[in-house]
Amino acid sequence: MATRGPRAEAGNKIRALEMEKMSLEQLKSLKKQSDLEVNLLQDSLNKIRTAATRLEIASTALHDLSLRPQGKKLLVPLTASLYAPGTLDDADKVLVDVGTGYFIEKTITEGKDYCDRKINLLKSNYEELIEMASKKKNIADEAGMILQAKLRESSAST
Predict the structure, then answer these.
(1) Which GO biological process annotations does it have (predicted)?
(2) Where are the domains of the chain?
(3) N or C: which end of the chain has fewer CB within 10 A?
(4) Whether 62 contacts 88, CB under 8 Å
(5) Considering only the top CATH level, what class is 7-157?
């Protein structure tokens, strides 16, 4: 996470001054839009977390597979809940799902490297999304506070 310094605080003050000049409808719209963006970013964060977990499980499975001797009997997953008995024929090569129905034959080491690269990419994307979500959340909170203050002001004057 980035640290908040004088530059970030100055940016927040400028943004708050700009928001104070907005009408009630503009503030409501800004708050609604910011909240929507925060929710979308949260969904993306959850999907990235899920994908990273699956890749970590796959990497662990590749490690476990490399320890099994050729000819070993095992259960092969056909779906998430359906397994069929099988025999390990070639413990040196695996098929890696690279997306949209495409599979590439790789060695176990290459498969683990692929998983590790994808995990690192997802983690860097995750960090960027957290930063973006935090900024959007701050904007939504500021807009909400200014909106509430303006509503109190207008109700007190009438």
Answers:
(1) protein folding; response to cold; RNA polymerase I assembly; RNA polymerase II core complex assembly; RNA polymerase III assembly
(2) 7-157
(3) C
(4) no
(5) mainly alpha
Q: How far apart are CA 40 and CA 89, in angstroms?
A: 44
Q: Could you read off the pLDDT of 77-118 as tens digits, one per residue? A: 888 899 999 998 887 888 898 889 899 999 999 999 999 999
- pLDDT for position 12: 59
Concatenate the DSSP letters of all residues of 9-59 into one string.
HHHHHHHHHHHHTS-HHHHHHHHHHHHHHHHHHHHHHHHHHHHHHHHHHHH
106 vs 62: CA distance, rounded Å:
11
CA-wise closest residue to 42 among 115, 108, 137:
137
- Residue 38, C-beta contacts closer than 8 angstroms, at least 6 positions apart: 133, 136, 137, 140
- Token digits of residue 71: 């000819």
